[in-house]
Specification:
The N and C termini lie far apart (84 Å). The strands form two sheets. Strands 3-2-1-4-5-6-7-10 form an eight-stranded mixed sheet, sandwiched between helices. A two-stranded antiparallel ribbon has the order 8-9. It has two domains: 6-175, NAD(P)-binding Rossmann-like Domain (Rossmann fold, 3-Layer(aba) Sandwich), CATH 3.40.50; 184-429, N-(1-d-carboxylethyl)-l-norvaline Dehydrogenase, domain 2. Helices cover 55% and strands 9% of the residues. The protein is an alpha/beta fold. The radius of gyration is 25 Å and the shape is globular. Bound molecules: NADP nicotinamide-adenine-dinucleotide phosphate. NADP nicotinamide-adenine-dinucleotide phosphate binds at residues 10-15, 33-35, 38, 75-78, 81, 84-85, 103-104, 127-128, 130-131, 260.
């Protein structure tokens, strides 16, 4: 019988959690998974929610279980699996039936899929918050035609996280706008995580703090301006003990971080857009570098261990907290700046304040600061976030702490790629007369590219001689 309001394909970590969330919010959901046994097991384990879930063994059965016009969410790995699934599904669907790709698609792929779908309904939605978010309320960034979003908005809003009762699910714009915003979210996430890891490094190697003391510090910061999911879990990670050895969990984890590509996509896209996001770029580079463990060990053997240890009075924990506050503002300012550039370049009119709002709950970068960021962007979405009065005041109070932290870390051989990139961005953005006049002189010297003069006029050439 066709009773289900929505379908979910892919019962992996995210799809299973999302299907339960949909059922939990009172919607009947039909599910299908490539490996049929998983579907059965999923249904058996669904407990009270099983009555709202229709498990299906074939795509035909899934389609037959859905009310018309149908809406089917794909939660499969990004890339070929999505195209294959669309190709398998489309011939079974009617002209008004909608496919929604909720995986981490590259937004260029979503642009293409929207084009290929033509008049057939298709949405690309970014879903953030990991398994827990998918189960109990993710942040959802929608892209595609607004009319298609409106058809399923009541379900997506119901299952999303809420901030003061407001759903963290918003339509971002046409085509791949939702997946684009999700990619920038992930880029910011990389930088936020990297900055926290850098401060952790100072506490561990510079100040010789125990994991317990580090955990307590993060827990304390989680009660102040830095309050956020990432600070909270960093404290919990630092507090955990390895059951096998009794050592701090962090001490038994290999120092090489993986990535699935969304941070890299953000950085590549930022280069295409000429959008300066140095802290995010530095964070992606840091992950790449982290995987070169043998080379790093060889470097340490060749050049010797850096001094690292610093007397306790060198940097106070309050200074580190302030440095992280400044770094965080600068990293978000870069991310929102990139979104603004993309908005112009792609003609999307991306809603910057609404983006800050959907990130306030449910997603990995949720933080107390996003509330003020949403207000600042609502006041003036075109202004660099670091210039908004609230954040300008915070940066005025904290940038010297960031400077001290970066300087002391440099003196003690501790690498802070993201925090130092943040500081360089801040200093560049507060320098009215920079040094690109030298670049222009060089370019004109070797390539006769011409330059603009301070006293007016374009296309001048210098008296360089030969
Ligand atoms: P997962 O646990 O590995 O599950 C993947 C699911 O896709 C499984 O149900 C699998 O079916 C199915 N699948 C794999 N290849 C397929 C194919 N070629 N055709 C049809 N079905 C296929 O992955 P996940 O973590 O749920 O991630 C799903 C999507 O969400 C990805 O795009 C991911 O990037 C995105 N995402 C993940 C997270 C996260 O925290 N995990 C957060 C946000 C977004 P079988 O059971 O048959 O293998």
């Amino acid at each position: 019988m066709s009773t289900a309001e929505i379908g979910v394909i892919g019962l992996g970590t995210m799809g299973a959690a999302l299907a339960l969330n949909i059922a939990d919010n009172g919607f009947d959901v039909a599910v299908w998974n490539r490996t049929a046994e998983k579907t059965q097991k999923f249904h058996e384990d669904a407990g009270d929610l099983a009555s709202r879930i229709t498990p299906t063994q074939t795509l035909e059965e899934l389609v037959a279980a859905l009310k018309e016009p149908r809406a089917i969410i794909l939660m499969v790995p990004a890339g070929a699996a999505v195209d294959d699934q669309i190709a398998a599904l489309r011939p079974l669907l009617g002209r008004d039936d909608m496919i929604i790709d909720a995986g981490n698609a590259n937004f260029h792929d979503t642009n293409r899929r929207v084009r290929e779908a033509g008049d057939l309904p298709f949405l690309g939605i970014g879903v953030s918050g990991g398994e827990e978010g998918a189960r109990f309320g993710p942040s959802i960034m929608g892209g595609g035609k607004r009319v298609y979003w409106d058809r399923v908005a009541h379900i997506l809003e119901a299952i999303s996280a809420k901030h003061d009762g407001q759903p963290c699910a918003t339509w971002m714009g046409e085509d791949g706008a939702g997946h684009f915003v999700k990619a920038v979210h992930n880029g910011i996430e990389y930088a936020d995580m990297q900055m926290i890891a850098e401060v952790y490094g100072i506490m561990r190697d510079g100040l010789s703090m125990t994991s317990t003391a580090i955990a307590e510090t993060f827990a304390k910061w989680d009660k102040g301006p830095l309050r956020s999911y990432l600070i909270e879990i960093s404290g919990k990670v630092a507090a955990a003990t390895d059951p096998a050895t009794g050592q701090p969990m962090l001490d038994v984890i290999v120092d090489a971080a993986g990535q699935k590509g969304t941070g890299r996509w953000t950085v590549i896209e930022a280069q295409h857009l000429a959008a300066p996001i140095p802290a995010i770029e530095a964070a992606v580079v840091a992950r790449n570098l982290s995987s070169q463990r043998d080379a790093r060990a060889a470097g340490e053997a060749l050049f010797g261990t850096a001094p690292r240890h610093m007397p306790h009075e060198t940097l106070s924990l309050a200074t580190l907290e302030q440095a992280l506050i400044a770094g965080k503002i600068l990293c978000y300012a870069q991310g929102f700046g990139m979104i603004e550039k993309a908005s112009d370049a792609f003609g999307w009119a991306l809603p910057l304040p609404a983006i800050a709002e959907v990130w306030r709950e449910g997603c990995i970068i949720r933080s107390a600061m996003l509330d003020d960021m949403a207000s600042a962007l609502r006041e003036n979405p075109d202004r660099n976030l670091m210039m908004a009065p609230k954040f300008a005041a915070l940066l005025t109070d904290t940038h010297n702490a960031l400077r001290q932290t970066v300087a002391q870390a440099a003196l003690h051989g501790l690498a802070l790629p993201a925090l130092s990139s943040g500081l360089a961005y801040f200093d560049a953005m507060r320098t009215a007369r920079g040094t690109a006049n030298m670049i222009q002189g060089q370019r004109d010297f070797f390539g006769a590219h011409g330059f603009a003069r301070m006293d007016g006029g374009e296309g001048h050439h210098g008296p360089w001689g030969s």
